[in-house]
Each structure stands twice: as C-alpha cells, then as structure tokens.
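Let us practice reading a record.
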Amino acid sequence: MREKMSFPIVIGATDHVDLPEFELFNVSCRIDTGAATSAIHCHNVKLVRKDGRDAVSFMLLDPEHPSYQNRAYYSFDFKEKIIKNSFGQSEKRFSIKTVLLLFGRKFKTEMTLADREAMKYPLLLGRRLLQRGFLVDVRLKDVSFRLKNFS
C-alpha cells in the first residue's frame, strides 16, 4: 500500500474519501499541498489504557455532520507530534495511521487528530499522501467521487 503509482493521478482541490476502519464513507476533504500531514476533525481526544495497552481515544466529526456516529474510536498505532496549525502556531497533536480509499485504491496514511470545527472540510489531505503519485489541479473538484459514482 506504500508504493508510488507509476503515473500521476490528477486530483482536484476537493474530493471525498472513504475511511473503512471507521465505517465512514464519502467524507469531504480539502487537498492541501501546504500541509505536510493529513488531518481529520475529531473531538474528545485523550490518551487511555485499553486492553492493557496505551491507546488514543477520539470521536470523529461533529454531531451535526451527517456521518457522525457518536462513538469513541481507539488507535494503538499513534504518536504525539508538534504541528504548525493553519494560523502558524505550534500545537501538540496525536497522529494515527489508517487506511483511506481514493480513486478505488487503498492508501495507508498518517493523519493528525485535529479540531477542524471552524473549517469547511472535516478532512485535509497533505503532501505525505499526495507525493505518492498525485498531481493537483486546483481547477477541478471531486474527481475521485465523480468517478466512483459514475461506475
């Protein structure tokens, strides 16, 4: 799942992705070549012990979001990072590894758990994912989503 694609896939400024590990589908996202790491909106983020191991617990999306599931998710594959937010301030965030589906392909990627409540898109796709074979054309929108719904 980490291989680079042999040819670039053109992606637009926005799209929709599936996050099968969280049973979330068609989540809208913003493509951001200025962000190193992808980020997903969540709340109630905390470090917990689960099954005798350290885990990060979080709730995805806002209660008003149509895909909100009102449940805590857990990840054992996490780390704490210092991230510079969109306002240029450094903040500590947890990051997790998860699989996302885009253009019918699975990508294992890192995402930070972020408060994106004030943002239009709950998910941001950053350079670490995009450098694996995507070419961004900001004139386009929802290319993968349209292909998915066309077939």
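A brief commentary: The first helix runs from residue 127 to 130.
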